[in-house]
Structure formats: C-alpha cells, structure tokens
C-alpha cells in the first residue's frame, strides 16, 4: 500500500514538473522578431532583452521610451488570471488563441492570450491612447502565437 501511494505521488510530481517545463519551453524573446515589434509600435526598437526567465522587453533608445513586453505563463493559472478584481476591467477578445482578454486599469492595458498549455501577457507602453495601445498589443500577440 505504501509503495502505491509513493508511486502515485511521484507520478503526480513528475506530471506537474513536466507541464511547467513544457510551458516554459517557449523562450519569450524568440516569440516575435525585433522587426515585428518595431512595426507594431511604429518605432525602431532594439533586440529583445530577457526579463527574468518568463519575459522579454523590446524598447526604443533615447529619452522618450516606447516599449513592449511579453511574459509567458503556465495555463494552469489561466482561470485565476481571468478572475474579477475591483477597479480592473477585463474584456474578452474573441477570435485570438484559445481564449483572450484585455485587462484595463485606468489608462493602462494588457492583453492575455491562452494557447494550449501556456498563455502570454503583452503590454505596450508609450504608444498613445488606450485604443492604440490595445491595437499594438493585439498585433504583437498575433505575431507571437505561432511560436508559443
């Protein structure tokens, strides 16, 4: 009996570890090209720079920064990311990935898109109004999804 319990626990741990490794297989800086990010932002950005192990940032140089970020997450936390939060608006975006939604806090936006066992969160900064920001985020997400 004790052996069966240990085997079940070991199988569960290996399963969880495997899904985390699989979800992290997508290198955030390889999801889109510098040219794709530059085109979406309407400004020339430098190569992607890692943000820890889960994200990447592309930015312009100079005093006025325009930038975009992508973070990659395990889809196991997708339901939690969609949970309602006071003073934060979450709006579904049909037709992209397996599921997608914008998160808006005052004048800042992000786009979360689930595909398979992972999801990405895309942010655009310094691009203008909310509509422009969301358009840029959607363009980058669509470019990234085939590589996720």
The tally of structural domains comes to: 1
Query: How many strand elements?
Result: 7
Number of helices: 4
The biggest sheet, with number of strands, parallel, antiparallel or mixed sense and barrel status, is:
7 strands, antiparallel
Strand numbers in spatial order across the main sheet: 1-2-3-7-6-5-4
Task: Explain what the structure shows.
The chain is an alpha+beta fold and 148 residues long. The protein has one domain. It has 4 helices and 7 strands; from the N terminus they run ααβββαββββα. The protein has a 7-stranded antiparallel β-sheet with strand order 1-2-3-7-6-5-4. Helix 2 (34-41) packs antiparallel against helix 4 (130-144). The chain is globular, with a radius of gyration of 18 Å. The model is unreliable at 1-24 (pLDDT under 50).
Compact overview of the structure:
The chain is α+β, with helices and mostly antiparallel strands and 148 residues long. The protein has helices at residues 2-23, 34-41, 78-81, 130-144, and strands spanning 49-51, 55-59, 67-74, 89-92, 99-105, 108-115, 118-125. It has one domain (2-147).
List the helices and strands and how they pair.
Elements: H1 2-23, H2 34-41, E1 49-51, E2 55-59, E3 67-74, H3 78-81, E4 89-92, E5 99-105, E6 108-115, E7 118-125, H4 130-144
Antiparallel strand pairs: 1-2, 2-3, 3-7, 4-5, 5-6, 6-7
Helix pairs in contact: 2-4
């Amino acid at each position: 009996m004790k052996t069966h319990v240990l085997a079940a626990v070991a199988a569960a741990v290996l399963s969880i570890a495997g899904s985390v490794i699989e979800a992290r297989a997508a290198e955030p800086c390889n999801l889109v090209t510098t040219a794709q990010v530059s085109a979406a932002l309407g400004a020339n950005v430098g190569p992607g720079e890692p943000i820890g192990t889960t994200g990447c940032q592309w930015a312009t140089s100079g005093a006025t920064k325009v930038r975009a970020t992508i973070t990659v997450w395990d889809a196991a936390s997708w339901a939690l990311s969609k949970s309602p939060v006071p003073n934060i608006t979450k709006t579904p975006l049909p037709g992209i990935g397996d599921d997608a939604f914008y998160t808006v806090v005052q004048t800042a936006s992000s786009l979360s898109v689930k595909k398979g066992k992972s999801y990405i969160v895309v942010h655009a900064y310094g691009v203008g109004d909310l509509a422009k920001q969301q358009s840029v985020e959607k363009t980058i997400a669509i470019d990234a999804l085939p590589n996720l």
